[in-house]
Design a protein that fits this description.
The structure holds two protein chains of two kinds. By secondary structure, chain A is mainly alpha-helical. Chain A has helices spanning 2-22, 35-39, 58-72, 77-88, 103-132. Chain A has two domains: 2-95, Cytochrome C biogenesis protein (Helicase, Ruva Protein, domain 3, Orthogonal Bundle), CATH 1.10.8; 98-133. Chain B has six helices and seven strands, in the order αββαβαβαβαββα. Chain B has helices at 2-34, 67-71, 87-99, 116-126, 140-145, 172-182, and strands spanning 55-57, 64-66, 76-82, 105-112, 132-136, 152-157, 162-167. Classes of the chains: A mainly alpha, B alpha/beta. Chains A and B meet through α3 and α4 of A and α5 of B.
């Protein structure tokens, strides 16, 4: 009886190992060059608050075909973004980029971080001082 | 007395900092929200924008035409993106007809995502201002042009330089602007 149970356990272990081996080695984030990955990073210019990927407008549908053509022509992802930014301006990309108009966007969080850090530092410094007294 | 003074000072500093943060965020949002969200390549930023070459079949003859060769035929060209299913295009058509009398100007239509049959009956019904009509069946050529949709109009000179870009239907102001450029 004990033997059987042990073997049962062994079978269970074996099964678990088998399942782990047989699970396809899925890299859940798909980094391959395809239309969906690129169009998710592009703003649909004639829709409100939708990406090209989400939208079914004529503009977005054409854009997806355009991106597919460019992929087939051998362009890299960044080359496609640059091409579209050149045609439509920075607004089409969800990445605001570094420029004269966006430096505040990058700079202010850093400033707040330093400011907050300074407040915390001085609070601790003062409380230590008081504690010593 | 001294402690009270310190607390008071702290409160003032704190409220001042808060006020500054609020003011900064107000100005950022104020500026960002006032800006129009429909951006297109600025044509007055001293950079010149040129049309990329592409070839499309003609609506009536079905012959493949290159935009570069068409643009070289006249001093100025209007490239108008239109479709028979586009309602503002019907109104715009009369403006285009009034522009079709100039000697140094040709009008090239780009028929956007349309059926040939519908496009032809549209031209029969409202008149045909176009010297050539290129068929852009899947809309990708309009993206090469940097267009958003229909209707959209470009004024281009012989050297393929974009002089004017009009998003949406043409109105009287645009018409005057085009006239003043052509007659220079």
């Amino acid at each position: 009886m004990k033997l059987i149970q042990l073997s049962k356990n062994k079978i269970l272990y074996l099964l678990i190992i088998l399942v782990i081996i047989l699970i396809p080695q899925n890299n859940f984030s798909d980094d391959s060059l395809n239309v969906n990955n690129i169009s998710k990073n592009l703003r649909c210019l004639i829709c409100q608050g939708q990406s090209v990927y989400d939208s079914n407008s004529d503009f977005a549908l054409s854009m997806k075909i355009f991106i597919q053509e460019k992929i087939e022509a051998g362009l890299t992802e960044n080359e496609i973004y640059d091409l579209l930014i050149k045609k439509y301006g920075q607004w089409i990309s969800y990445d605001p980029g570094y420029s004269k108009t966006t430096f505040l966007l990058w700079f202010i969080p850093l400033l707040f971080f330093l400011f907050g850090g300074a407040i915390i530092y001085f609070k601790i410094y003062n409380s230590k001082k008081n504690f010593k007294k | 007395m001294c402690l009270q003074y310190l607390i008071k000072q702290k409160k003032i500093i704190f409220s001042l900092i808060l006020l500054v943060i609020l003011l900064i965020s107000f100005f950022i949002f104020n500026k960002a929200l006032k800006n129009e969200n429909v951006y297109f390549p600025k044509l007055n930023d001293n950079k010149d924008y040129y049309i990329e070459d592409f070839s499309l079949p003609e609506l009536f003859t079905n012959e493949k035409l290159s935009i570069k060769q068409l643009l070289e035929k006249k001093d100025f060209s209007i490239v108008n993106i239109w479709a028979s299913w586009c309602v503002p295009c019907e109104k715009e058509n009369s403006f285009l007809i009034s522009l079709s009398n100039f000697d140094n100007l040709q009008i090239i239509g780009v028929n956007y995502k349309d059926r040939n049959k519908n496009a032809k009956s549209f031209l029969n019904k409202f008149g045909n201002p176009f010297n050539y009509n290129l068929v852009d069946a899947n809309g990708t050529t309009s993206i090469i042009l940097g267009a958003y949709g229909v209707p959209e109009t470009f004024l281009i000179n012989k050297n393929k330089k974009i002089l004017l870009k009009i998003i949406g239907p043409i109105n009287n102001n645009h018409l005057n602007e085009i006239n003043s450029i052509i007659k220079k």
